[in-house]
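step: validate -> pass
step: tokenize input -> pass
step: predict -> running
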Amino acid sequence: MVVKIKMDAHNILDFLRENAIDGVLSHKIIEYAVKITKLSFQEIERISLTKGLIPKRYLRNQRVIKRVEQLALLNSCVAIVGCGGLGGYTIEMLARLGVGQLICIDPDYFREEDLNRQRFCNLNTLGQLKAEVIKEELKNINPAVVVKAHTSSFLPEIGETLLAGAQVVVDALDSFEARTDLAETCRRLSIPLVHGAIAGWYGQVSVQEIESNKLIDLFKSSCGKRELQRELGNPSFAPPFISAIQVAETIKILLQKDNNLLLNKLFFFDLLTFSFELGQL
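step: predict -> pass
step: emit ->
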């Protein structure tokens, strides 16, 4: 039961401690603290995590992500370029994990042909801008996450502005030309890039090392070729699979678990024959 006391930003910690159960705070308590203090959900979570309390929404993270790491995620920023099949699932997972700021970049809107696979596409969101829809939907998934929605195409000349503040960039694009521009921009800005792509039963993931050109060279060599995803299609099971791997790589970068990254490696999967390959770029 919430203890109704006069509360402001100065005595919020006492309130949170008194209403925590075994160091765990329910959403109801956090929501009440937000209402009374006028602080944001993110600010209340930051106070809680800094002082040893865990919001209940992250309780199942704890065996994998320690409290100090959860705080690090809350203070992190990730940019996702492309908010469709791969991007939608990636964004949702990062929000549920508690990454505090997400930059969502996509100029497109939801179409009927997206209904088969895209996480935030439904009959009510058809015709609406993907980045704007996602920004609103995430308020009901994790209100502590701050979302910047950019409804413009990613272009090198505005890349620095679009990616401002990002510690990691996730590639969820669907053309080699756009991926090349993104990879070159990330290299120039010294931002790690987590690449993902799907086509039919197949997909791949890689992480671009800051000083490396290998992923850029891979994209350049494919420019002008027919996009396989247009030829092989996009079934619903492929995007969440590859997105989960992209999210895992992103979290490892943010939490500095660098020894296990797919740096300059290409992980390829074939779900039809259930075969996997890990090779060097």
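step: describe -> The beta strands are 24-25, 54-55, 77-81, 101-105, 146-150, 168-171, 193-199, 202-208, 265-270, 275-280.
step: cleanup -> pass
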